[in-house]
Predict the 3D structure of the following.
Amino acid sequence: MSGGQPQKSTDQSASKASSNKPFLKLLKQGPKDPLPATPPIWMMRQAGRYLPEYREVRKQAGGFLNLCYNPKNACEVTLQPIRRYGFDAAILFSDILVVPDALGQPVRFETGEGPRLDPITDAAGLAKLDPLKTSKTYSSIYETVDRIKSELPDETTLIGFCGAPFTVATYMIAGRGTPDQAPARTLAYRDPDLFQNMIDMLVDSSIEYLRGQIDAGAQVVQVFDSWASVLPDEEFQKWCLEPMVRICEALGQSHPLTPIIGFPRAVGPLYKPYLEKTGVNAIGCDTSLSLSYIRDELQPHAVVQGNLDPMLLLNGGPQFENRVRKIIETLAGGRHIFNLGHGIIKETPLKNVERLVELVRGSAK
Ligand code: CP3
């Protein structure tokens, strides 16, 4: 499978270009280098439904995945939050479920209901997927990356991404989002060999997909493990940590200069072993982590990213403003990227986002 083969390093351009990009520069720095005056900022799900200009393009696009697979439109919505707020990073507009779709498990997005797939629950279902078939789908995404790269302001960093194998598998097995990921957990216990085969396929395909994004121009990649927290320690090691270690090792071989951000959302005390074992350059901190834990346990070892509660951003007001200041002050002694603890909520008022950027950029002492 192509995912396992090391390739010629193609991330040289990332090293040359980092000096005028505060976000990329910070990710490439060591803990002893001088810090920027204010933390770089971007927001998870910054391209999306809270923006009227996104809703306009989305209406015309004819289906969410059509938007993801149309390089012109996907490039446009990637750039919208950059134009409006001047974030330090743009994130490729796509979705974590592009990977199963590319492998041959079609994904549909029903209006207002989230993703739908025909669930895979046995070996015959998994056998229908074809890792050699992904290139056509992935190419349209690489074309989007290429377009964004040529239109992005000089000072903005481009983030590529994929879902972590476990999180993607939860959708492939349940056929939809579920509150507790019970179908995937059940299958993992009932038929660990089958589950392992699915994870292995996703590891290889994710490596291929991230390498392709980097070759096309992504300067940083983030891996979203949104549902890692439902697993007990032992299963977390096996289904989240090990796959992520393989992804990091493979990218480390082929693209050693491209920083990786891990986001094992809500895993609490497992954040630390995740950081140690994967060696990610930066760690996405969810809302539940205390600032002192982030500062004392994580920040000495990696760039920390986070962790404003998206609900505080939605509500605005003094509580929101005080928390923004507190996050910045607590983490000011080390490398910090300002972000939310999870994706922005679609009802968030635009003026609150504007205020957030103002607060962060005005926070220099
Ligand atoms: O701006 C960005 O962050 C880039 C694009 C992006 C999207 N999804 C666009 C999107 C990214 C990075 C994702 C990641 C993603 N997708 C995750 C991991 C992060 C997280 O939030 O935990 C997950 C679990 C998914 C799967 C997914 N995609 C679901 C469950 C849904 C439906 C729920 C919802 O929010 O509507 C989506 C749809 C989706 N992905 C939308 C967007 C902008 C909304 C679709 C629309 O426009 O109708």
User: Anything to note?
Assistant: The CA atoms of residues 225 and 264 lie 5 Å apart.
